[in-house]
């Protein structure tokens, strides 16, 4: 079944360029020139597999749109890639803090964009796990088959990237993963080179896990582990 992608950009030429090339790559694509139209569309239960989102949009900017998507449980797990002319590291970090899975700056290479889209989509569910649910210290439960995380039986909504990081750490409790190892787990050869990428996702993850956040330990100068 073909994957559906929404592209939101106020420049019709960019929407058309991305749409044509993604359709050639086998995706179903719907374009929007403003965020409100896209949000209204998703509110009617038409949900994509991924959203490409500009930041500098009329009326409501991309950052605010992303916040609304991540706040809504029905759209919180949809991967977001920012495609923006704002190229400062602080803009990229802010985008990741909101919950975006990737950040690409304009002008962009369409082949790189397609490669990054495919990389994000590959992060979806982990590989087959034979139905094994991971339980840690009677507080954290991870069901990789249903893509669900529970803290003391309360379901926690995570982004795709946050889930992948948590699942990677939880598969080997006590094992210290370097930032480079986590980046390779998420992006492989197509990893995004942004300082603090993993740190930003870990911080978001801890905030969502609340009382279970103490399980994620930072090993200074090395990386992260799940403590048991």
The percent range for helix content is 25-40%
* N-to-C series of helices and strands: EHEHEHEHEHEEEEHEHHEE
Poorly predicted parts: none
How many strands appear in the DSSP assignment?
12
List the quaternary state of the chains.
single chain
Can you put this structure into words, describing what you see?
By secondary structure, the chain is of the alpha/beta class. The chain folds into 2 domains: 4-122, 3-Layer(aba) Sandwich (Rossmann fold); 134-226, Arc Repressor Mutant, subunit A (Orthogonal Bundle). It has helices at residues 12-24, 35-43, 62-71, 89-98, 110-122, 160-171, 179-187, 197-209, and strands at residues 4-8, 28-32, 50-53, 80-84, 102-105, 134-136, 140-143, 148-151, 154-156, 177-178, 216-219, 223-226. A 5-stranded parallel beta sheet has the order 2-1-3-4-5, sandwiched between helices. The protein has a 4-stranded antiparallel beta sheet with strand order 6-7-8-9, covered by helices on one side. A 3-stranded antiparallel beta sheet has the order 10-12-11. Helix 4 (89-98) packs parallel to helix 8 and helix 6 packs across helix 8. The chain is globular, with a radius of gyration of 18 Å. It starts with a strand and ends with a strand. The model has no long low-confidence stretch (mean pLDDT 87).
């Amino acid at each position: 079944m073909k994957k559906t992608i929404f592209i939101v950009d106020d420049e019709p030429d960019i929407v058309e360029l991305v749409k044509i090339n993604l359709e050639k790559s086998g995706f179903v694509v719907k374009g929007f020139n403003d965020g409100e139209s896209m949000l209204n569309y998703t509110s009617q239960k038409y949900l994509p597999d991924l959203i490409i989102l500009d930041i500098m949009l009329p009326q409501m900017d991309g950052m605010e749109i992303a916040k609304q998507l991540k706040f809504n449980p029905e759209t919180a797990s949809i991967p977001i890639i920012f495609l923006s002319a704002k190229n400062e590291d602080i803009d990229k970090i802010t985008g990741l803090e909101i919950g975006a899975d990737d950040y690409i700056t304009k002008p962009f290479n369409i082949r790189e964009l397609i490669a990054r889209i495919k990389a994000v989509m590959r992060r979806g569910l982990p590989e087959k796990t034979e139905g094994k649910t991971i339980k840690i210290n009677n507080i954290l439960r991870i069901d990789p088959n249903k893509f669900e995380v529970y803290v003391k039986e309360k379901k926690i909504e995570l982004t795709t990237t946050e889930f992948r990081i948590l699942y990677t750490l939880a598969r080997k409790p006590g094992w210290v993963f370097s930032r480079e190892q986590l980046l390779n787990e998420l992006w492989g050869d197509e990893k995004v080179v942004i300082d603090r990428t993993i740190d930003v996702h870990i911080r978001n993850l801890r905030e969502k896990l609340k009382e279970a956040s103490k399980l994620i330990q930072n090993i200074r100068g090395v990386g992260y582990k799940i403590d048991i």
